[in-house]
């Protein structure tokens, strides 16, 4: 292997890439634009769920009760309905996602010290939202019940209100949030977006760059040249790895300086693993480019094998531990998961190699194995 | 000029004939590419099966360890209330700092700490507190875990005070509390496979619909075969429309396979509304999305550029249109931006027809918005198509 030839191939590739201004522009712009759009736009705290209410009781207590919903920031109050029959249309059109129905004799029963069941109709099409809605309703009901109960105990047993509150609420749960103390959703999404961008853009750049040569036929010049297999592959990948690594650094700067996400870990560890990850994702692109012969196919194949698993299995939104066994195994075959561990670990947790070595090792393995497979499969002779 | 009705209808026949021939050409070109056919098949069958089976957006099996300094019957009782599906108990810690190390490694998501004298304080009617440490590197999941834990502890406390008050005044049935009853509509069992397999299908349709026509067009430009088409008697519309028609037909076929061959038999996904309406609006969605792709192809010069450009657009569409995260969570400017995403409307339509049994009387505004968007994209694309060669 001659480094001169590698450098020649690399500089040829670099020139070809730089000549296509729009391609270069998009290659550098894509991760940055995504980071800005998702960093500001991908908010995961579900609030302002559109809500309508049906009050069958029309008492002062039922108004007090509903007031807690209509003023809550978790619900977006859309109006009061006369009867349950109207609720149908609201839920079907999606104008409301939940309906609270206060039954008759709400006040009467509660004042008499009896329990009341309040029904909530919830749109079940999006299970996550349904679940969150349920949680908010239960929390508001719980707080209202606790107040009622304290009043009741104070009245029945003749103790002070403070004493009754302890009685009604014997245990408190003190929650301490670790790593992301203010629980900012952007702090957890932005580091993961570094993974997202580096998982999607590099394979596409690489696959397109190589298949382009195949499709236009200019690869025959390589076939007939003295450049060896390994020299060609190495030289060909250098520009794409370089562009992607620069993007990794830019994304890191955006995350820490622009978005102000704390970086508690070791910058060196982050950079080394980012390089390994970029080597892995360009390796995926290399493999795709060997499998297909047209750019359309290269696009489709890289999108299918990178975009869907990245959204679904990388821990970006759904933690890997919540996946079903089948999907859990799939997630472990997918390099994105390891890098998510590393970015979250280095950004928020501030842990080092002693904790993250399995993930770094997995990425290193990917980078090596993908290249070996690519080297084996690539032939300098055109297939028929 | 004035050929009369016969020559007018002949011209229409020729016009349509050309369209059919060109659509056939696109189909042949598409199916000749084996990797595309393979990945198309995979995406509409196996991939949907996997997303339906594997994905759970709700909190599931959050790994929890306990540091119990009390070891009483009350503390054990409380710990046992943390169970599946929300929590998975990973055993007890012997030292409190051990939990933090496990959390650093990521093998534990939450730690429950029960103080000494927990049982004693409860029995004496003194206030007491348990502590929960939550990993919030994934903020929404951490909040959700804390929420469930709060519910469990509150219920535990309520049960204790109910038995205590119950002793003096006759049972928990006579306490003024509000019981939460939920009726979940459209998907009463909260079968997540329904949601996830449908959203998987929508994602796949979007990717193929935007990508294939865009690259097919860019390929003609890159290879120069578009010059041949330009000197033929075909109008720009007759060159562009067949690419969309071919893709629409392929996607409708693939959707039928996914729906009737995978989602119904494997997950029992219901089709409560009209099948014809569903497929007509799927065709409209494909048309609109393909229009976006074609528009992208007219402002780029080769396939590599159009590939990057569509990727730039398609990722926000998939992430922000309301299947990856609910629309209610997103800021107003994202909601405004997503008015331009046909997927946003199609999500309401697909879930509306499949799960809610909604008809055009409810979904008309979404359908019109999608059609208007598609018409605009297509009109703009055809206009650009003509201009770019002048």
Describe the structure.
The complex is a heterodimer of chains A (384) and B (390). Chain A is of the alpha/beta class and 384 residues long. Chain A has 2 domains: 3-42 and 183-377, no CATH class; 49-168, abc type-2 transporter like fold (3-Layer(aba) Sandwich), CATH 3.40.1710. Helices cover 68% and strands 9% of the residues of chain A. Chain A has 15 helices and 5 strands. Chain A has helices spanning 3-19, 21-41, 60-70, 84-93, 106-111, 127-157, 161-168, 185-216, 219-223, 229-258, 267-291, 295-313, 325-332, 336-349, 353-377; strands spanning 49-55, 75-81, 98-102, 116-123, 171-178. In chain A, strands 2-1-3-4 form a 4-stranded mixed sheet, with helices on both faces. The mean pLDDT of chain A is 87. Chain B contains 15 helices and 5 strands. In chain B, helix 4 links the parallel strand 1 and strand 2. The longest helix of chain B is centred in the middle third of the chain and has 32 residues, at 192-223. Chain B is of the alpha/beta class and 390 residues long. Chain B has helices spanning 4-32, 34-44, 46-54, 73-80, 96-105, 118-124, 139-169, 192-223, 225-231, 236-267, 275-298, 303-320, 332-337, 342-356, 360-388, and strands spanning 62-68, 87-92, 110-114, 128-135, 178-185. Chain B is 69% helix and 9% strand. The chains are: A alpha/beta (384), B alpha/beta (390). The interface between A and B is large, with 138 and 133 residues. Strand 5 of chain A pairs parallel with strand 4 of chain B, so a sheet runs across the interface.
Can you give me a brief rundown of this structure?
The complex is a heterodimer of chains A (384) and B (390). Chain A has 384 residues and is α/β, with parallel strands linked by helices.
